[in-house]
Specification:
- By secondary structure, the chain is mainly alpha-helical.
- It has one domain.
- It is built from six helices and no strands.
- The radius of gyration is 15 Å and the shape is globular.
Length: about 140
């Protein structure tokens, strides 16, 4: 992969997503996590398996590692407590946000290899805070 396209054919969408998550507020992250909790089903897990297979079949392992590294850097830099008092499970918010964002970002990475249903299962927690049209215009 070139430096201009570190995420292969989906570079623009992945970069758009990474930029967008950096602008989310703690309230928006809580919204994402709540949406995720209501959508974790067998379809969610099946879609996660489909992403793993798609990464391998498309030979995007290096892109996956770069993406997860960047995502880790982003989530570590965020101020998860939002200036609020302690004891509000900010560690749980950070960990869950990282997990949910990782699967959505990986789904974007291999979107061209997933069914619409698989992709949507993993991206749905972000639809209200990062509409797809704002990052790549492809539905």
């Amino acid at each position: 992969m070139s430096d201009e396209s570190p995420f292969g054919p989906r570079t623009l969408a992945v970069k758009g997503f990474l930029e967008a998550i950096q602008r989310l507020t703690i309230a928006q992250w809580r919204e994402v996590i709540e949406a995720w909790r209501t959508t974790v089903t067998d379809a969610w897990h099946d879609a996660g398996s489909a992403v793993a297979a798609a990464v391998m079949q498309s030979d995007r392992r290096e892109a996956r590692e770069e993406l997860l590294s960047e995502l880790g850097d982003i989530t570590r830099r965020m101020r998860w407590d939002g200036g609020e008092a302690g004891g509000n499970s900010t560690q749980a918010i950070e960990s869950t946000a990282h997990y949910v964002a990782s699967l959505a970002a990986l789904a974007l990475l291999v979107r061209d290899r997933l069914t619409r249903h698989e992709f949507e299962a993993l991206y749905v927690p972000f639809v209200s805070v990062i509409p797809l049209a704002t990052i790549d215009g492809v539905h």
